[in-house]
Known about the structure:
Elements: H1 7-16, H2 21-32, E1 40-45, H3 51-61, E2 66-70, H4 77-91, H5 96-100, H6 110-120, E3 129-134, H7 146-151, E4 160-166, H8 171-174, E5 181-184, H9 189-197, H10 208-230, H11 235-249, H12 251-255, H13 263-269, H14 271-275, E6 299-305, E7 314-320, H15 327-340, H16 347-351, H17 357-360, E8 368-370, E9 377-379, E10 389-390, H18 391-411, H19 423-435, E11 439-443, E12 460-463, H20 467-476
Parallel strand pairs: 1-4, 1-5, 2-3, 3-4
Antiparallel strand pairs: 6-7, 8-9, 10-12, 11-12
Amino acid sequence: xxxxxxxxxxxxxxxxxxxxxxxxxxxxxxxxxxxxxxxxxxxxxxxxxxxxxxxxxxxxxxxxxxxxxxxxxxxxxxxxxxxxxxxxxxxxxxxxxxxxxxxxxxxxxxxxxxxxxxxxxxxxxxxxxxxxxxxxxxxxxxxxxxxxxxxxxxxxxxxxxxxxxxxxxxxxxxxxxxxxxxxxxxxxxxxxxxxxxxxxxxxxxxxxxxxxxxxxxxxxxxxxxxxxxxxxxxxxxxxxxxxxxxxxxxxxxxxxxxxxxxxxxxxxxxxxxxxxxxxxxxxxxxxxxxxxxxxxxxxxxxxxxxxxxxxxxxxxxxxxxxxxxxxxxxxxxxxxxxxxxxxxxxxxxxxxxxxxxxxxxxxxxxxxxxxxxxxxxxxxxxxxxxxxxxxxxxxxxxxxxxxxxxxxxxxxxxxxxxxxxxxxxxxxxxxxxxxxxxxxxxxxxxxxxxxxxxxxxxxxxxxxxxxxxxxxxxxxxxxxxxxxxx
Length: 486
């Protein structure tokens, strides 16, 4: 397919936007030429396939005015229409006719938007204007008639070309005659590796040739062993995963144990990085690689004697917490876990101030116990799932477990402020746990999705994490969970 762009400009675009030569030629023929362009154009493809990057690079290289509207950043349809007028006026800001046009910034409907857009572009009788709606299928609160209405803007506004960038177009768009489409397929394996290999991460005391070879082999290994078996490989995912594993993979090179040319030895030394899926885990509330916080230890290290070693050397066991929470949310999460895994009939025994401390530490570690009188076998409470509880009971457990320790701390001369604070702050932090899905609603208070008051008397909740997560969180706020469970 021939293009009407200069050869130097086309070569520059192909060099900056790699692996998209066919799509650049198609866009250049439909948009960049001085001949009339189609009134509407649909660009579709999966996420991270270079659609927005390609169209932005092409629009910057031609002399036609254009405006790109990121639809994902617009909250409502009215916000989208008003933002479109602002971007169009900004693109025409250097023209005397456009500065003389006064428009109303408010757009209550698509009809008002069409009238104001026509007033802005009424003086353009020679050059065309390109209007791009990026991720228009992800527009929030979009009416079903929004996309057909935007596709008919050319009927009232001459010399207007509207480009729609979509991730998942509807089948009806492909049945419309006279509507050209440009498909951006996902990157293949070789294309992904070539794109990532073009920008290697730095490695001190390593020549560029050895670094390029090592980075290419490392990116290929990461793609084949971790990314492709776990999900559909994309360019941002591969770049993020390589950047996450690169410091640990090249640590032997920095220490001088190996050189950059000894890739098999580096792979053997760091094979645990590619045997585990820890690098693929994403967590919005923190992960093991997050910086250490003063109120929640990043790792708890304990030393124990190795009974198999006659010399009596010690071994180090590291327990890493996956959550990094402030003190009050951490205390509420521990209280919620105790409320879910402790029967209400044992609250007086475990959480009362008058009960002996030794009875609280009594634990039952048998998986299956046998009653002496009845002879029936039953499971322990630790193996059962979380049970629902009311908010009032959880707050009472929180007061019994943590506020008592706060009072002892203040009696020893310490300052206050380590406890829960006011009731309003406690409920606010509890709402934070609910928003993070650490605590979920079980029954009552509109639990079925029909609304209702979440703080109603009949609302019941349950914890949504296991003991392996809550244990380190409790130790970070000075509470051992096993001491408060039967």
